[in-house]
Amino acid sequence: MDRFERQHILSGFGIESQQKLQNANVLVIGAGGLGCPILLYLAAAGVGKIGIMDGDVISLSNLNRQVLFGENDLGKAKVSVAADYLRKKYSDIGIEEIPEFITNANALEIMSDYDLIIDGTDNFSTRYLVNDACVLLKKPLVFGAIYEHEGQILVFNSAKEGGTNYRDLYPNPPAATEIPNCNETGVLGVLPGIIGVMMATEAIKVLTGYAESLENKILFFNSLNYQTYTIDFNSNSEFKKLIPGSFEAFRAKDYSLSCETIQSVDWDFALSQMNSDRILVDIREASEMPKLEREEVLYLPMSKLLKESKSLLAAGEVFLFCQSGIRSLKAVTELQKVLPGKSIYSIKGGIAAFLSKQEESNTYGN
Amino acid sequence: MTIATLSGFGNRKMETKEQKISVRAFGMIAEKIGSGQIQLTGISTVEELRDSLFEKFPDLKNMKFSIAINKQLVSGNAPIPADSEIALLPPFSGG
């Protein structure tokens, strides 16, 4: 008997399907609320090789839903804590750590090593980027996303002819200001747990051919009333034109959301502008790490920003940043209403972009 | 122009021969509408559906969503048969 006995004896699954899992090579992008349950169950099911990709570190507010992490892990890289945990549990699978955020510079090279990609990230830029890369590489993609008490799950691009992709459903990304992520909206930790396990289920179906996957369908799930709703859709050749036609075009495409370009600046620009009448404002809540240790930083969390906006009056120019650049972009719009005429900018990519910039200069600098 | 009415809204329940459709909404769209399901009357195309929704719920104008008729995604100005179930499907990104 081995640890997969109960899968071997499952009618229609058997040793053959188990072998397919053992031979599979799966990349889980995002080791957060969705990624944690996906990783737990794929490792338990015996997927032979699992890549974990995420450039983020663990913070206290992650712990209600990111069940691979605990109080002793704060500030550590998500991928290494997740990988250690799974390696301790199971000796018969391989775990690969990729401690980076996915970008159009690294996506094609990293993803091409895997048979199946699972997207458990938390923003639209990344989701369109991953989708387009999967289309170019012809990789099946399991997609799942949540909003408050609801989730949606899809399977794209599986080997069958006429497979669909995300742009068949939503050709273009929404404006950044329209859509909150989990850091801004509340979420009960159980919801990504449920949706993540459903994504792992779809991954097992795609890898083994066991049962029918959600190819060409979108499933909505609501955790308040347990209702599900499934829509059928087809591929649309018009929308395919929105996907870069070549690897070169993919690498050259700007995946940051279009409205970001109006009020957003990058870190190099913001830091080069620093002088006495310009300030950097960290709009994250106090518990969010890591902090940017510079004396020009004013800590004014989103929850107090509008009430205490007067403290920004003295500044000539205001540069807002958050974790990933989504909240700060929204904050620009809100703040401009109460401080009309003031020059207010959002720093693209937030603290995450600062960290990867720093890492880059450590690697390539003198 | 057809006038769409939210049935069961207020005390005037309109008796009408116009076709009824049921509209289901998800995520932020349901929030803006204030319900996961409403009934509309006098709507026979996707264009009319959008006009009616935008008139009642102006916030929806700035939101992205796809539309399904009887659980099949549609694009463009598709006809809406009587007694159809429409679904308004916003994209989610959280994880």
Features:
heterodimer; A: 366 residues; alpha/beta; 8-stranded mixed β-sheet; 5-stranded parallel β-sheet; 15 helices; B: 95 residues; alpha+beta; disordered N terminus
Structure description:
The complex is a heterodimer of chains A (366) and B (95). With 366 residues, chain A is α/β, with parallel strands linked by helices. Chain A contains 15 helices and 13 strands. In chain A, helix 3 (35-45) packs across helix 8. The longest helix of chain A has 19 residues, at 190-208. By secondary structure, chain B is an alpha+beta fold. A five-stranded mixed β-sheet of chain B has the order 2-1-5-3-4. The longest helix of chain B is centred in the middle third of the chain and has 11 residues, at 46-56. The A-B interface holds A 30, 32-35, 119-124, 127, 144-148, 150-152, 168-170, 172, 174-175, 178-182, 185, 187, 192, 218, 220, 222, 229-234, 236 and B 24, 26-28, 36, 62-64, 66, 68, 71-73, 75, 87, 89-95.
Overall geometric form of chain A: globular
Q: Which ranges of chain B are low-confidence, i.e. pLDDT below 50, for 5 or more consecutive residues?
A: 1-16
Element order of chain B: H for helix, E for strand: EHEHEEE
Shape of chain B: globular
Total beta strand runs of chain B: 5
Helical amount of chain B: 10-25%
Structural class of chain B, by secondary structure, is alpha+beta
Percentage of residues in DSSP E strands of chain B: 15-25%
* Number of separate helices of chain A: 15
What is this structure, in a nutshell?
The complex is a heterodimer of chains A (366) and B (95). With 366 residues, chain A is an alpha/beta fold.
